[in-house]
Design goal:
By secondary structure, the chain is mainly beta. Strands 2-1-6-5-4-3 form a 6-stranded mixed β-sheet, with no helix packed on it.
Length: about 100
Amino acid sequence: MEGCTYVDSTKNITNYLDPINYNKIKKHADCINDSKLISVNNYYEKYNVAVFQCRNNNLIIEYSWTDFENSCSIMEVKEDLKISPGYTVKHLNSP
């Protein structure tokens, strides 16, 4: 997860993981391990992207992964914000 982009919609920030927020992401690892696959789609026609979601208290945690340089994106959002599934795909590294 070190190469992931982290999107926290509650603070409106997008950044790469660093030692400051790595521990925050690490606490979500169990939730991500228990997540449900919500979609698998093409990504830039040559790659694939898988999107997973799980719930942790009143947060939805979404994780997208693509086979392009093992790019990934993690987002946590309050359930009541109703973000459309797959939002994290917009924050993946692109080819």
